[in-house]
User: Fold this.
Amino acid sequence: MPSDKIGLKIYNLAKEIWKYPRSLTGKGNVKTLQRFTKICPNLNIKYVKSGQKFYDWKIPNEWNVKEAYIIDPSGKKICDFSKNNLHLVGYSTPVDKYISLKNLNKHLHTLKSQKNAIPYVTSYYKKNWGFCLTHNQKNKLKEGRYRVKIDSTLKKGKLHYGEILIKGELKKEIFLSTYICHPSLANNEISGMTLGIFLSDWINKLKNKRYSYRIIFIPETIGSIMYIGKNIKKMKKNIDAGFNITCVGDEKNYSYLPSKYGNTLSDKVILHVLKHAVKKFNRYKWVDRGGDERQYCSAGVDLPVATFMRTKYGEYREYHTSLDRLGTVVTAKGLGDSFKIYTRIIQALENNRKLKFKIFCEPFLSKRNIYPTINDAPNSEIMITADMLRHILSYADGKNDLIDIANLLDLPIWKLYPYTETLKKNKLIQ
Assistant:
């Protein structure tokens, strides 16, 4: 499917789930996952209970909100959760009372540096309540009595997450992880989860898969720690490459954030694809991390997980504010182009393997009708093909995989696919 068409499909899904009130837990997460099952019926919705411990962390209570708002002295409703779910500090406890402006200000959050933006604020692990609004709105508040209403529940419940397993020929897995815990933030992180579910659908339909694929939809940090806690042994055993999918919806520069040492198959394939597909991209260091790659590559876990993004989280002005919107920051084109990169990555992994010659010394290609019997011009198509076959054969010594060979030839791996198929058909490599 062309990138513009799939980009529009991803974008339309993002619009549909825009207002779902997602957090670490709650009905908004469940509703999001249920919508995703319509695209990938093999998405399994799972959960762990509040209070369950995973390493140094504990699953928080489940949080749900019916309504939340402030009524000013004139009777006008402001900071209405139903209008914008960023207005409410995440995990706010129930409140229903009248309060002075002086006391209200203690619970209001703004951004002085971006006076027209509503900030994204949470208080997951300490009981609190609060509202977020633009700095300009706050400056217009007048003295008087304000009614504060937060109809929320915070009690023992469940943390839900989604998991897809798509089996291939091998037990070895490609691992894909994305977030479902933020409310109305387009690039961070609706772009990741919506692209992730359509990528899962594309993988489902991919024929003759070598690898198995495991795709998870989790709340950030606590979700990855929980998932590691439940699955670390099989993750260490089975994962060949892994990717954290986030911030993939804008049209600015592409970005790469490595695994801890930058020496995994995940790193190699991202760098290779970006070099040949987009030419220019931002390359970050491990110390610049900030997403769930932190957990997957933490000491002792050390999984081969790297991150491909468009503009990196924290590096664009609209990050974690109401300005991170669909249509302005995230576009159908941005989503479609990122989707294309991810399919290139997966196709590269599917075609990648160590190549080894089956005939000692350089084989006689002409008798197999894959080398000309008459020397043609060096730049003719037939000679280019013949030379490429010989180049690949020369590096097929069992030491190099196809990405290595493509790097040695300074060519994109997808340019080598037809040549390796020719060599396989003629039983010259294994």
